[in-house]
Amino acid sequence: MTSAFEALCDAPQTEIDLGQLSPDERMVVDSIQINGTVGVTQSDPKGHFTGAFYIVGDEKRAAERFVEQNKTKLEAIDFSRRNPISTSVDRDVYDWILHALGERELEVYDTVVIERRPDDIVWCIGRQTFEETPMRRYTESGTGSAKLDGVSLEALYESFGHHVTESTLKAESVVRGDVRVVLDAIRQSTAFECRPTTVDGELAVTKLNAEVNHSKLDHETNGSDSDVDHD
Q: Hey, is 96 helix, strand or coil?
């Protein structure tokens, strides 16, 4: 193992001489580079962003390092629009950059991703949809995604009785989209003590704690609360 690769194993790096890596090592090294980014060599001072080199699979830490090095410049970008970051990096890296910036908070589970936003919007997205068809993540029609508007997943869960079912979720105006993904998010999230079940032929979860809150969400829609990688 070369010393340069050993450094990458320890943490993503802002400057690496790729020529020092062996051919096999080079094959598993990637980088976050924005147009004109500094990082390939110390003699390239023209870039606007400092890049980050990393071993494939270490995208989350690479995004954190990239944000750490470029926070002021990144905070000046409007991420609601097409921008130099979104057009320069792969979607999974972009997601972790937004996560590190606080624009999104991602919880990644076996088959579902929970994405929380600062504007009190929560998306529950099937992991296959999230990773393989990112252009279809944020849809309220079809399957694979659901949106909670103005209510946290925790508040939604606590508003129900002993069971949370497909029907009870569909009855809530703040829940839009594929409610089965919401049930999957509740089932896998470490925030809830519950188990999967069926009620009248519908998918559901049963709460394991004895005390449940039977109130509805009227008070939550007027003002609700609203980094965890579980791979």
A: helix
For the chain, domain boundaries: 1-103, 105-224+227-231
Measured N-to-C along each axis, helices 59-75 and 91-101 cross at an angle, to the nearest 10 degrees, of 60
pLDDT in tens, 95-115: 999 999 998 999 999 999 999
Q: Round to whole Å and give the CA distance between 124 and 147.
A: 6
pLDDT tens-digit series, residues 10-62:
999 999 999 999 999 999 999 999 974 444 444 343 348 999 999 999 999 99
Residue 115, strand partner residues:
106, 123
Closest among 115, 149, 152 to 130, alpha carbons compared: 115
Question: Given this model, what pLDDT does residue 135 score?
Answer: 86
Q: Which residues pair with 177 in a beta bridge?
A: 146
d(CA 52, CA 208): 44
